[in-house]
Amino acid sequence: MTAAPFRRMCCAACLAATITLDAAEPVRGQPPPPAENGAEQMKIRDLYPLITTPLLAETRDFYVRHFGFQVGFEASWFLYLIGPGEEGARGAVLAFMHPDHPSDPPGPERFDGRGMILTVEVGDAAAAFRRLGDGGAPILYPLTDEAWGQRRFMTRDPAGVMVDVVEQIAPAAGFWEPYMIRN
């Protein structure tokens, strides 16, 4: 198998394992991990990527225009975006930072677009595909029904992040059988 199909297969396996996190409940079937040394378990209020890019305004406009995000906070070197939630779900959060930011310690280096895919799950990928295409977003991978159970397409934001827009659909019969881990 060549490198490109292998990478796509690995990405597909990761993307198909979409998990909705609910901070109030542990993962089904698993007790919460014990706290070390009797200390209270860490409680996470939020978890979001912070992507370093000099194109803050362009990136802001991309997510506001194409995905309906709102600006939660904006400064000359930092941008915090909040996405719309569906049916009572909390929306996603993204943050971007200019490489010349004044925070301490310095870093990280500017994001170059490699090694990250941001998955945006929607209820209707075909409608999102039409809206983004009509709105001028670059389409890198066309709307496709994947055998592992996703209807998806891909675009790229001005910061270089590959954005995979997915809708969960029924997988092809037996697709996951050879990949399942047996305990």
TrEMBL record:
<protein>
    <submittedName>
        <fullName>VOC family protein</fullName>
    </submittedName>
</protein>
<feature type="signal peptide">
    <location>
        <begin position="1"/>
        <end position="23"/>
    </location>
</feature>
<dbReference type="InterPro" id="IPR004360">
    <property type="entry name" value="Glyas_Fos-R_dOase_dom"/>
</dbReference>
<feature type="domain" description="VOC">
    <location>
        <begin position="45"/>
        <end position="168"/>
    </location>
</feature>
<dbReference type="Pfam" id="PF00903">
    <property type="entry name" value="Glyoxalase"/>
</dbReference>
<dbReference type="InterPro" id="IPR029068">
    <property type="entry name" value="Glyas_Bleomycin-R_OHBP_Dase"/>
</dbReference>
<keyword id="KW-0732">Signal</keyword>
<dbReference type="InterPro" id="IPR037523">
    <property type="entry name" value="VOC_core"/>
</dbReference>
